[in-house]
Write a structure and sequence with these properties.
- Helices cover about 10% and strands about 55% of the residues.
- With about 240 residues, the protein is mainly beta.
- It has one domain (about 40-245).
- The protein is globular.
Length: about 240
């Protein structure tokens, strides 16, 4: 009788351990993160833009021109593209930087400035200045790497999620959940390229930074700004406000 009792206790213990192990292995659904790429008509974001570009005709060194202005991006409509995919028509407006924000917006409706965006089950793409970029991939996971230029002819750039679902403050605005995509970080004696973008849930892009210039120097990597011969020394788009119209 005692032997049977001990045997029963052992079986019960094995069953309990197996049950607990199964509970620990419960399936966890992957996080897709579609809310980082708003897809509703009327959604808009306003950015403050800072731009420093090389002017090779300028007499003084460094040969740089500086610009400051605002951009407003609006999801104007959604239509089906030639592959039958719902696609955003994104209209970009521009105005001179103003502390009062009372200056009128002027539409920049030349063909290459009407951009488009497509939210698919596995990726979010944007067609900007006739180049199609894979901005985000789904489901999202930390340190995920993909070729952001797989849909264009620029060449392979290994995009990577360098931060995911973290709080952040941009230009005095606090966001509960943001992600950062490191797009390119390359330097040589003759070129410097640095691209990254930051997104927030329900808003989309909240910060963008671009450095992409050529130079003639043999002394340092990246080459100093004073040696830049062409390109963009610095460009940024910084979140100001957003909403639906």
């Amino acid at each position: 009788m005692m032997k049977q009792l001990k045997y029963g206790v052992i079986l019960l213990s094995i069953f309990c351990i197996a049950f607990i192990s199964c509970k620990k292995k419960e399936y966890t659904a992957p996080y897709f993160g579609y809310d980082y790429f708003p897809n509703n008509v009327g959604h808009y974001v306003i950015y403050e833009c800072d731009s420093i570009v090389v002017n090779p005709y300028k007499a003084t060194v460094p040969r740089l021109d500086t610009f400051k202005y605002q951009i407003k991006e609006v999801i104007d409509s959604i239509y089906n593209n030639n592959q039958g995919q719902p696609t955003q028509r994104i209209v970009r407006y521009k105005r001179a930087d103003s502390l009062t924000n009372t200056l009128p917006w002027s539409s920049i409706l030349v063909p290459e400035k009407v951009w488009t965006g497509t939210l698919l089950s596995n990726m979010a793409t944007r067609l900007e200045d006739n180049y199609n970029y894979i901005k985000l991939v789904f489901p999202m996971s930390a340190n995920e790497i993909w070729n952001g230029n797989a849909l264009n002819t620029i060449g392979t750039w290994n995009y990577q999620y360098s931060a995911l679902n973290t709080p952040a403050t941009v230009n005095g605005h606090t966001f509960d959940s943001t992600l950062t995509v490191m797009q390119q970080n390359y330097s040589s004696f003759f070129q410097y390229q640095y691209y990254y973008e930051q997104y927030a849930t329900g808003v989309g892009l909240i910060y963008k930074e671009v450095i992409d210039y050529n130079a003639t120097t043999f002394f340092s990597m990246p080459p100093p700004i004073d040696s830049a011969t062409s390109g963009t020394v610095f460009y940024s788009e910084t979140y100001l406000s957003s909403g639906n119209q």
